[in-house]
Design a protein that fits this description.
196 residues; alpha/beta; 2 domains; 5 strands; DNA-binding; DNA integration; Resolvase_HTH_dom
Length: 196
């Protein structure tokens, strides 16, 4: 019987450290982590590895329910798969486990509430953007990575891996930026110093 921790953040610039420390402090024998969106299960290799290796009596531990997934259906499917293998799921905040019948109900309710909350946030955000556009104040989101700096470093002879290291992003993000046609590029700022 093992306690297996799973930590997840959605983007490369988010920090996993807090989740990792919490899971280790809770006595997880193994902790696996990844930086990928929780919108679907696709591409979440670390989570799939955990699920495939679960044995009867094992416990999958996450700090919060949304670390498992963003959609209630995905979370419930994961819980079901764990139960089929004789394993349980424990969420640390709030402290709930699927070992008892009540835990399964609580996880279902939490998933539904979280999904509804995300829909409300998106709706409010959409309304705010529409109002800002109507007033001529909306200029769109600022790109997280300075596209101009990526191109500048490329012209200086750096490869995608080195550019990614310098700017704190993945090699694939660098490739995507370099492949963008000029018509789709965000307005680029000229930089006089390195860094982000």
């Amino acid at each position: 019987m093992a306690r297996i921790g799973y930590a997840r953040v959605s983007t490369n610039d988010q920090d996993l450290e807090g989740q990792l420390k919490r899971l280790e402090a809770e006595g997880c024998d193994v902790v696996r982590a990844e930086k990928i969106s929780g919108a679907s299960r696709e591409g979440r290799a670390e989570l799939e590895t955990i699920i495939s290796f679960l044995r009867p009596g094992d416990e999958l531990v996450v700090t919060r329910l949304d670390r498992l997934g963003r959609a209630t259906r995905d979370v419930l499917n994961l819980v079901h798969e764990c139960e089929q293998k004789g394993a349980s799921v424990t969420v640390l905040d709030p402290n709930v486990s699927t070992r008892g019948d009540m835990g399964r109900v609580v996880i279902t309710v939490l998933g539904m509430v979280a999904e509804m909350e995300r829909r409300f946030i998106k709706e409010r955000q959409r309304e705010g953007i529409e109002q800002a556009k109507a007033k001529g104040k909306y200029k769109g989101g600022r790109p997280r990575i300075d596209h101009g700096r990526v191109r500048q470093l490329r012209t200086e002879g750096l490869g995608p891996s080195e550019i990614g290291k310098q700017l704190g992003c993945s090699r694939m993000q660098v490739y995507r930026i370099l492949e963008l046609p000029a018509s789709e590029r965000p307005q680029e700022r000229t930089r006089t110093s390195g860094g982000l």
